[in-house]
């Protein structure tokens, strides 16, 4: 084993996460993939593992800058920032942190549905501003329990969302590439048909090029003027231009969003809308879950350095 095998890459790591990694394995740190080439060539050659956290692309060029690289351990289940084909071609293993965050992200989806339909932010403002005592009851909101929910992508997180919404007595519809075993949930072969059948369309797909604009302008149109779109997946999975236009022209009722095309500098048109609830990509952002993600990332790194099977490999 080399003396400094680990590169901690990404400004998004918290001090705590950074300290945990560097205490366990001798490491150096860079703020972004772009800073890699600034490292001394002798050091770059010794690095065998990258602990990665962030959205900036980590591609063939970055991999080529680290000739001894054998593992990219991603912090997060979504690894769309990492060029998986380039990694596989160079025999570089990639790991992620699945499952430990399912509950939190599903909770966030439910929170966005409730915040959007029951107008929780408007209610908070109504009380704080004194409008309650001045004008009385605020305009009525919309019922969630018993409504129709459509999940786009019934994977690990999508299923947790569906289970929670079933407990709200909602009628569950879903779209996945293949029909799945469910307790009688209604399958739709395409996202447009799904959007046309539901009140809340919840996007839980993986990100990346293959699912870019999967929720198309046509699907957003099919949702209709009483429909609400929730996205906790990646900004790329929804046609953001079509979504903004539909929200501005009130062709859909609203949206609850945790993810955007450009993060954190999101399209400012979102900030001017009163029919959206916006969150700062915080689906997994609880103390408990971030700790579990950090532990799983470290477990993958340790396993790789010890020559053991990787706990959560992607390739
Ligand atoms: P997962 O179990 O792999 O499920 C992903 C879903 O995406 C599956 O339903 C799968 O479809 C679908 N999918 C994958 N490739 C596709 C393709 N080429 N075309 C159409 N559908 C495709 O992943 P997960 O663990 O639930 O995570 C889902 C995503 O949530 C992550 O990738 C990440 O981007 C996002 N996420 C967001 C946050 C947040 O903070 N907001 C936190 C964690 C994760 P099938 O059902 O047909 O296989």
TrEMBL record:
Record key words, sorted: NAD, Oxidoreductase
SUPFAM superfamilies: Formate/glycerate dehydrogenase catalytic domain-like, NAD(P)-binding Rossmann-fold domains
Family the entry assigns: Belongs to the D-isomer specific 2-hydroxyacid dehydrogenase family.
Top-rank taxon: Bacteria
UniProt keyword ATP-binding, yes or no: no
Family matches, as Pfam families: 2-Hacid_dh (PF00389), 2-Hacid_dh_C (PF02826)
Boundaries of every D-isomer specific 2-hydroxyacid dehydrogenase catalytic domain copy: 15-315
Listed name of the protein: 2-hydroxyacid dehydrogenase
Source taxonomy: Bacteria, Pseudomonadati, Pseudomonadota, Alphaproteobacteria, Rhodobacterales
Signal sequence range: none
Source species: Rhodovulum sulfidophilum
Domain D-isomer specific 2-hydroxyacid dehydrogenase NAD-binding: 110-283
